Amino acid sequence: MTRNEVSMAVIGGGIGGLAAGLSLLRAGVDVHVYEQSRGLSEVGAGIQVSPNASRVLHRLGLAEALAMSGVKPVAWHQRRWDDGRTLLRTPLGEDIEAAFGFPHYQIHRADLLDALAGAFPAERFHAGHRLTRLAEHEDHVEAEFESGTHIGVDALVGADGIHSTVRCSRFGPDIPHYTGCVAYRGLVPADRLAHLDLEVTAQIWMGPGKHFVHYFVQNRRLLNFIAVIEQDSWTRESWTDQGEVADALAAFAGWHPQIRGILEGVDKTFLWALFDRKPLARWSVGRVTLLGDACHAMLPFMAQGAAQAIEDGATLAVCLSKVDARDVPDALRRYETLRQPRASRIQALSAKNKTRFHLPDGPDQEERDAELARGTTDWSSSAWLYGHDAGVIEPASWCGAGE
Length: 403
Ligand SMILES: Cc1cc2nc3c(=O)[nH]c(=O)nc-3n(C[C@H](O)[C@H](O)[C@H](O)COP(=O)(O)OP(=O)(O)OC[C@H]3O[C@@H](n4cnc5c(N)ncnc54)[C@H](O)[C@@H]3O)c2cc1C
Fold this sequence. Notes:
- The chain is α/β, with parallel strands linked by helices and about 400 residues long.
- It has helices spanning about 15-25, 50-60, 65-70, 95-100, 110-120, 165-170, 245-250, 255-265, 295, 305-320, 330-355, 365-375, 385; strands at about 5-10, 30-35, 45-50, 75-80, 85-90, 105-110, 125, 130-135, 140-145, 150-155, 155-160, 175-190, 200-205, 210-215, 220-230, 240-245, 270-275, 290.
- It is about 35% helix and about 25% strand.
- The two termini are about 20 Å apart.
- Bound molecules: flavin-adenine dinucleotide (FAD).
């Protein structure tokens, strides 16, 4: 692989940071990833990887790893909360693969992170490195870590998540807005749920003030669920607070026996509050930019947060592949121009789904259900989302230096 002259630090070794590291490496960038945790750390939860993300991951050489632990659901099944009536069933499996050329996966987050880390050179991954200070100069960026390490690079990207230190240092602290929703998350051993005879679909149950999503991960050994509930107040934003199973069961009293059966099978749940952020007007300042949750944290109601982070890395790599160190600021602005509108659109659509999923029974819910019943299984309306290739920039939008 030939190297260009650009050296880059990725701050944060989560899904977004590691995927970006791999994309940048393949583009010839001299990239290193700095992660605050001592090792790889992921919460015990599942994630959906849609074709717009699996396209990038396959190109990064991860097709086999995804196929080994991921589950390909046969359909998305949207259902009514109390009687389980089908509102819309959209075939996935071979259908979505035929439509977009790449599969839709359900996977354990740790399996995805392991696959990414396994493909990234160990000598370029620096665990136990928490960024503490950032200084930008005309021709380079300096970064300091709690470990005492000090580096100088041509470019730096903050892939350091929702509480991003990089974002804060460039754009100041942000004020997240509590959306009025909390989510219980959990993983249930599939053998405990055999009596429910669950199909291999991603199921979304909609009801008044709540919704419930479940799907298999890890070769169907575990069932992942997310139970979202409207709740008046919350103070912390964390992914790791424990929730009481009894509280979740009480919240879903009166719901279909399948939902209650899943909750009864879990040992431990995590409780997580949903905060909203307005799209950032800017992601890049000079030689520093952002990706993933650091710049577009979104509600998980389209299952696109990590997918968008993966796309960011692919586009960033294309923008940096044709420049030398002098042109980094222009390349980062181009990356932002290409990515910001799409990520903001998906952020806004994800937020809108909260209202749609949680309608109380009545005229609006009936209208939603009627619309779902008319729903098409033709993929043309979602081609903009799943058919997008973040690793290809149309010539019209490419006016980069060095061509
Ligand atoms: C319940 C739930 C369900 C979801 N479902 C889906 C789904 O199905 N599909 C999907 O695409 N997305 C989903 N998402 C969203 C997705 O999980 C996130 O968008 C994604 O993890 C963001 O990745 P990231 O790399 O940007 O940030 P993170 O995963 O938060 O990684 C940030 C990394 O930066 C490190 N870090 C932080 N600060 C520093 C520092 N100062 N120095 C060094 N390192 C630092 C952290 O330790 C961490 O490893 C879901 C989210 C939730 C909560």
